Recover the amino acids of this structure.
């Protein structure tokens, strides 16, 4: 997918990826962002998705139970494979930067 012709507000994308992009898959497919930018946006979205998973588990409405999986799949595709040794085991933890380094 190419860019929409509209410049991406990177600050907003990094603070709240879902306010700029419709899905993690859209981020992964953007060719108007560098691989590093897409990976960083998805890393931050992963953190947000982990927080949403906790909220969903605690009975708060409007959670997206598969979002974390979709973010990780997009990151895996961009990086040539996530380092599963570096992916946190608990959903309260963020994704370690080393897990998303391109191979």
């Amino acid at each position: 997918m190419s860019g929409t012709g509209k410049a991406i507000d990177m600050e907003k994308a990094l603070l709240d990826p879902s306010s700029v992009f419709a899905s993690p898959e859209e981020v992964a497919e953007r060719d108007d962002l560098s691989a590093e930018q897409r990976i960083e946006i998805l890393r931050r979205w992963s953190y947000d998705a982990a927080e949403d998973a906790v909220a969903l588990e605690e009975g708060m409405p409007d959670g997206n139970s598969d979002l974390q999986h979709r973010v990780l799949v997009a990151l895996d595709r961009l990086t040539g494979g996530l380092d599963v040794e570096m992916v946190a085991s608990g959903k309260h933890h963020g994704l370690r930067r080393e897990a998303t380094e391109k191979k």
In short: The two ends are 23 Å apart (CA to CA). The mean pLDDT is 78. Residues 10-100 form one domain.
